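Researcher: Structure prediction, please.
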Amino acid sequence: MTDTARDDATLRNRYDFVLLFDVQDGNPNGDPDAGNLPRLDAETGQGLVTDVSLKRKVRNYVGLTKQQSDGEFEDGFDIYVKEKAVLGHAHVEAFKKLGISLGEEKIVEMPVDLEETVRDMPLPDGIERITDEEGRLSLKLAAVLDKAEVTDWLKDNPELDKEAAKFIDKAVKGTKARKPTRDETERGRAQMCQDFYDIRSFGAVLSLKTAPNCGQVRGPVQMTFARSVDPIIAAEHSITRMAVATEAEAEKQQGDNRTMGRKHTVPYGLYRGHGFVSAFLARQTRFDADDLALLWKALEQMFEHDRSAARGQMATRGLYVFKHDTELGNAPAHELFDLIRIQRRDPKVPSRSISDYSIVSPPAGRLERFPQVELIKLVVPTGEVEQQDSEALS
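Model: Predicted structure follows.
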């Protein structure tokens, strides 16, 4: 997209939104610190889905829709944080596009007699160990290595092996490297925002130690943890695979060949999350109206393209967008969120579908209490009841 087109599509409104989604017989967001059990609030028992998990699904949707047949992404819609990505490569590529040369990466093969010493010793920022196919150790010196910092680091760590420290000092002095200036960092930041949809949307910390520094980006789109309306029950299931991985396992089982495992699911949970879009931060990252439309589409459809045995059945059930007339906004976000009310129809009966809940919201359009805020209903839950916002607060 050209700069002129982006200027024409600049956001001039603040947005707040409510996202409703549910899960049936699946694990919406496992906790690796708890054996991959569904995340929950230990005090209330409510289920949790992190903002990181939701942003991951948005990234995946954008990646699916904007990736071309040759594997490349449409201009401006690459994804910075994607599976198996090496983040530093994106920084180097951004500086190449800008014609900024910082130096040359250098690989120095370690003397055999120092390999074991260096293999276990700490290293300064900008230097990392690499091992070739034969197991030989080398040091990789980044193109943005700060020679003075490395020299000071070696002086501040006199306990290091003297021969190893001497070798590193000599290797560093022979490199052609420098850090970007403040202006170059800012240009790099702007280039990263232009190239990557998720940086332009969610922001990122772009100050890597082994790649050109592109500063930090505060993203205009922010999301909260999603929290289940009611407490959830995490069910644990034993599962069986009718095969084993190795001959040794087969012999041990005398041909029975079974492998036992466990799976955690939530029988049903309706989750609610909140989000915010800042027009001021959008101007800084050049997040525009087209990017916003893609965000809404991703939130509507992201679960349709995230199917797996672990997820069960998940779906976006409601997406309510509050559009303010101004960049600063015309109503407190929390008061707008309170207009979307959800209650279980029969508290005595466990919920197993969205029809077990009563969902009340104002009619689409201008709100009675906040006439400078428009409610846009992009996804409407089944059985939703409309009620004027003045009645909802009475």
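Model: The chain has a mean pLDDT of 90.
Researcher: Thanks, that helps.
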